[in-house]
């Protein structure tokens, strides 16, 4: 699957410890809308301090307003995203990575997007490649068919969004930190938000024991800088050309419009308007 990005040019954007979680959400959307004007790919790497990125279905739990206190009492900022999936926790130990590009071939499927990211992660962490499985971990938060796990413990989840011929494949990777605490916060969110009420949507019954950090799973210490170097090594090994991304005036204008829309949507969800 990695041949789909071989010999491509990547503009690399790295934004760390962004205070407002809406910023990378809007940034990825801006990349998705603007990449169609270029054959270049975009690699977006970012971290967030103490944020909960939740999906639209999460806002429909019966007691959503009360459930938000699972975040607030842990000093976590919630934000509603426009890409698939349910809620995840993000902090300085979680690396978020997005590949944004025009579809690498005419019949590029959703599953191929997931498989591309799975292969990319296995290449970044070769010491765990033979152990990494892409299967749903049903009792994790934000479960999906392409949850990445080792020995049944999830450490990453993949999401995808397409607009016309452009696609963004995103992943969050639990590199280090307290994954059980993160899972317990999402567990509290659903328990408070549902409170034994009958719901049609299939929300996960989060079991913190089925999630873990990559650091613990591989029994190896990582820093984010280590991981950045690994990412670059993989891309250079694929004969890709890497350049530091620059924000053009058109991109900034597009971003500002998207951010305002994201802000209005987020306020509408969180304030129940």
Automatic annotation (TrEMBL):
InterPro entries: aa-tRNA-synth_II/BPL/LPL, BPL_LPL_catalytic, Octanoyltrans_LipM/LipL
Signal peptide (UniProt feature, chain positions): none
GO molecular function, one term: catalytic activity, acting on a protein
Matching Pfam families: LplA-B_cat (PF21948)
Protein name (database record): BPL/LPL catalytic domain-containing protein
Domain called BPL/LPL catalytic: residue spans: 37-222
Organism per entry: Gemella haemolysans ATCC 10379
A Gene Ontology BP annotation from the UniProt entry: protein lipoylation
Transmembrane stretches, start-end: none
Domain of life from the UniProt record: Bacteria
